[in-house]
Amino acid sequence: MNQPDLTDAQLAAQLAEVAGRIALNVRASGLLAGRSLGDAGDATANEFLCSAIRSNRPDDGLLSEEEKDNPARLEKSRVWIVDPVDGTREYAEERSDWAVHVGLAIDGVATTGAVALPDLNGGIVVATDEVKPLPAAASKPRFLVSRTRPAKEAVAVSKAMDGELVGMGSAGAKAMAVLRGEAEIYLHSGGQYEWDSCAPVAVAQAHGLHCSRIDGSPIRYNQADTYLPDLLICRTEYAAEVLALVAGL
């Protein structure tokens, strides 16, 4: 795949879509299961993504969950940040709440990207260059949380706002669920890395959602330490209340 004439957003969308199909093909072979399947899907999709990015954007930096970090990226203004299979457990279980993340950070800001949801409705891709209006919000705020480890802040804030907790897998699936009108708030703490949120944040911001750390500070990417433990992605009308409640915990 070598299409240098594509815009960054178009490239991100194509990469995410193809990587998702690759992961689906690995699973469809029926030769692997469980953790072995997750590892194989990650590795195969990662090989494609990294090769395609280096071919199409040779001067840019690259950070992937599935590759050894190259500190040379820190000297780059433009850095692609990818997660080949976000939600490997859900992928291996043939659930729909896993994703492929392809994001581009420019000077530390998530500016462009795409999130593919290969198992949802026959496969969809949400990108920064195809912005659609947000669906109407529910009367009671719905909070997206981990299926197995709901963040204590999300539980507390949901209770204070008379909200509802909705369990879901991948960070990308959660962020896209807010865009799709399946929830209003994604409040996470307890550990993530840059590749977990770069593409989802770029897409969410392009669609007019609030994106920040849970203390309200901006989210910065392409840092020496890639640990990025918390974030808030939500409809703008809820941002101030959620941040105030978190600050009061």
From TrEMBL:
UniProt GO BP: 3'-phosphoadenosine 5'-phosphosulfate metabolic process; sulfate assimilation
Keyword vocabulary terms for this entry: Magnesium, Metal-binding
InterPro entries named in the record: CysQ/Inositol_MonoPase, Inositol_monophosphatase-like
The keyword Magnesium is assigned to this record: yes
Top-rank lineage group of the source organism: Bacteria
Cofactor(s) needed for function: Mg(2+)
Keyword Metal-binding on entry: yes
One GO MF term attached to the UniProt entry: 3'(2'),5'-bisphosphate nucleotidase activity
Protein's name in the database: Inositol phosphatase
Native source organism of the sequence: Erythrobacter longus
Source taxonomy: Bacteria, Pseudomonadati, Pseudomonadota, Alphaproteobacteria, Sphingomonadales
